[in-house]
Amino acid sequence: MRSVLLTGGAGFIGSNLVRLLLRERVENVVVLDNLTSGYRRNLDGLPVRVVEGDVRNRDAVEEAIRGCDTVFHLAASVGNARSIANPIEDALVNVLGTLTVLEAARDHGVKKLVYSSSAGIFGELKQLPIDEGHPVEPDTPYGCSKLAGEKLCLSYAKLYPISCVCLRYFNVYGPMQRYDAYGNVIPIFAHLLLHGRPLTVFGDGEQTRDFVNVHDVARANFLAARASDVSGAFNIGSATRVSINELIRLMEHASGVRPEVRYASPREGDVRDSLADISAARAKLNFEPNTRLSTGLTEYMDWFRAELELNDALTQRNGS
Length: 320
Ligand SMILES: NC(=O)c1ccc[n+]([C@@H]2O[C@H](COP(=O)([O-])OP(=O)(O)OC[C@H]3O[C@@H](n4cnc5c(N)ncnc54)[C@H](O)[C@@H]3O)[C@@H](O)[C@H]2O)c1
Description:
320 residues; alpha/beta; 18% strand
């Protein structure tokens, strides 16, 4: 892995992966991003070539992919709510965008493509822990388009000399994940906590989630790219679950702020429990999540606080 392209590299997970690749001394790192939900400042000061463009635009993808042996395809229209509001855009980016990247990868002799998939492909959960054999019955356009992207990648791995690994992330959290990020609970709670506002919990708070730290997700991508001759789909989670009540206790500890918590009726469609079975990723990719939630939340709350201070400073400067 000497020369790599990250689509969506200016986003939350992508910009963390860029940092890992640079630490691992990958020689040439290229980012293709249209900056719809990513930020150029996520890459400030890093020695990467940034191509500002859309994954649906073949010319932009060609410009970025030339000379690359490995592609991390993260660019996507992300989130269930966004896909329900705009299903056509969701499919254009997530399905046709993925196909455009695959076609360019094939033409340019890329050896390995790692695709960012989602546990959203499973739909209503039928068994715990969730292994790769769990039925895939997505219940949003986003889940459907991420699944279509997976299937396209795996069909290219069968048809052409390219290995494709699809990583199905559970709830990812960590630095660079902003409050406006498609309704994830940790950034929402962080935002409310640091603004001294009450947290609303839907249901009794004993529902559980598998939160996986972005550094572990970045590591999973790196390992997947290095695993020779491996193609397939793998769950990427922490293999532990915590309740929302416990999460609030940990965030209180990490931030030093005691929140007021309000309980509301459970939301339609929310699953009760979630837990990834990651045995396949352990066996085939040598993946081991090693960030404890308490440690990851401390880092995240510190990052979030610094981000708020920076935004305040920028607002004051621009206002004066
Ligand atoms: N964050 C999570 O919890 C989570 C969970 C499951 C799967 N994923 C997947 O991980 C990947 C990265 O997600 P993220 O959380 O970092 O989100 P993000 O929104 O921060 O990153 C997505 C990036 O893709 C870019 N992008 C969007 N449309 C594009 C287009 N048409 N052309 C070029 N670039 C485009 C955005 O500007 C952004 O930088 C996505 O594929 C997402 O489906 C994320």
